[in-house]
Amino acid sequence: MLALVLVLGWYGGWWEGLVRPVVNPKTLPSKPAVPSIDLYQTKLVGWDQQQKAWEIRAKRIWQSADGNITYFNQIDQGIIFSVEGRTAYFKAGWARWEKPRSVLYIGGFLNITVDQHRFKTKEAVMWFKNQELSCSYPIEVIGKDVRLKAEKLKVNLKRKDVRLEGNVVLSQGRDQITSQTVIYNLKSKQYQLLEPGGIILNL
Predict the structure, then answer these.
(1) How does DSSP assign 67-128, residue by residue?
(2) How far apart, in Å, are the Cα atoms of 137 and each of 79, 102, 119, 146?
(3) CB–CB of 171/148 below 8 Å?
(4) pTM score, two decimals?
(5) What percent of the chain has pLDDT over 70?
């Protein structure tokens, strides 16, 4: 399989155009009316503020006619780069890059790996301006010795912390702790429980 690498930035030409109304993140058109780019089995590299923002390899990649939105379908390898040196790897059914707002939407059986922690959820959004990855759907986090479940999540790559909210369940072995909010620091590997609930210990 031949992989074509295209590096697109401010000087690439297709970033230019007028800002149009934001498309619903859940909507992924299968047949764009007039795509300006339509590629297959390709790897694409995107830039934001003169820095490498993401790298995505997908079965199909196409772009809106005005060049402001890029769509990806059947992603087998994706990388999100952080200005803080953090890197997130993912696989997903689809993604959409909105250049004017510097936002990357990802969805469809989404699996993200950050610092040996795997996140499984329906959809997520990466905001490059504030270096934040957020998810408003039920999510599961799997680490080496721990597993967490929550209703939503927010990862701040600047502060290096993960915030899980809504009926959070933290499991280690057969033991469980419940809380409304759990904050996990990726650097110190420490947990902070806000509004803790119950504790189940299996001795």
Answers:
(1) SSEEEEEEEEEEEEE-TTS-EEEEEEEEEEEEGGGTEEEEEEEEEEEETTEEEEEEEEEEET
(2) 21, 21, 12, 20
(3) yes
(4) 0.74
(5) 78
